[in-house]
Design brief:
CATH topology: Four Helix Bundle (Hemerythrin (Met), subunit A)
Distance between the termini: 44 Å
Number of helices: 6
Oligomer: single chain
Number of domains: 1
Structural class: mainly alpha
Number of strands: 0
Largest sheet: none
Helix content: over 70%
CATH class: Mainly Alpha
Strand content: under 5%
Shape: elongated
Order of helices and strands: HHHHHH
């Protein structure tokens, strides 16, 4: 069974265990998927309402994008786990001779890249989700606006969580040029989208208080 297909109690139990996966990357992807789904729910409660007829086409399109994002994020839970396995094996490779050390370095570098790229993909999906949730919050049913706020803050947390799974891998890379470029790309997403998600949450909160 794939990790994403686990029941909620089983996923939580696995997360709390000493097993290496799922970990922070998979948890971040799941959190983002939940955040997207909450925005999607706002859309579901908007479609078909006369009051929102003028934005219905936009909401339908946002819902379609949300459906695709939810599915992509669930796939990334499993991809994150798949990418960690080679890295875990690489740490156990022998390094008793110069040849063994060179081979270990080569395998480690590739495994670190793979293990960093997936959480970065999760970050990019979180950014897409925050943009979509912002639209749901602005145009969707006001009866469900709290769900848009929750969705935004979930995706913000997922974005930040996934970034740590980028940084823990780039920190160990020997190719510092590649590592610093990936770090910079992750930092740019954090700077832009933590602020966007925070603004959506603040706007929703202001409307509810």
């Amino acid at each position: 069974m794939s990790i994403s297909a686990k029941t909620i109690p089983d996923f939580i139990e696995s997360l709390a265990s000493k097993e290496p996966v799922p970990g922070g990357g998979g948890a971040s992807a799941l959190t983002a998927a939940i955040g997207v789904a909450l925005g999607n729910m706002v859309g579901s409660l908007t479609v078909g309402k006369k009051k929102y007829a003028d934005v219905e086409a936009e909401i339908v399109e946002l819902k379609k994008k949300s459906d695709e994002l939810q599915a992509a994020l669930l796939r990334l839970i499993d991809k994150d786990a798949e990418d960690f396995a080679p890295l875990a094996r690489a740490y156990g490779l022998p390094r008793d001779t110069p040849e063994q050390q060179a081979e270990k370095d080569r395998v480690m570098e590739k495994a670190l890249r793979d293990a960093a790229v997936t959480p970065f993909e999760i970050m990019k999906k979180c950014a897409e989700a925050i943009d979509i949730i912002k639209e749901f919050a602005a145009k969707g049913s006001k009866l469900a606006i709290s769900d848009a706020g929750v969705g935004a803050i979930f995706c913000k947390a997922a974005l930040a969580g996934a970034s740590l799974n980028v940084f823990i891998n780039t920190k160990a890379m020997k190719d510092r040029a590649y590592a610093e470029k990936l770090n910079a790309d992750a930092d740019r997403l954090l700077a832009e989208y933590e602020a966007k998600a925070g603004a959506v949450f603040a706007q929703v909160k202001e409307q509810l208080r």
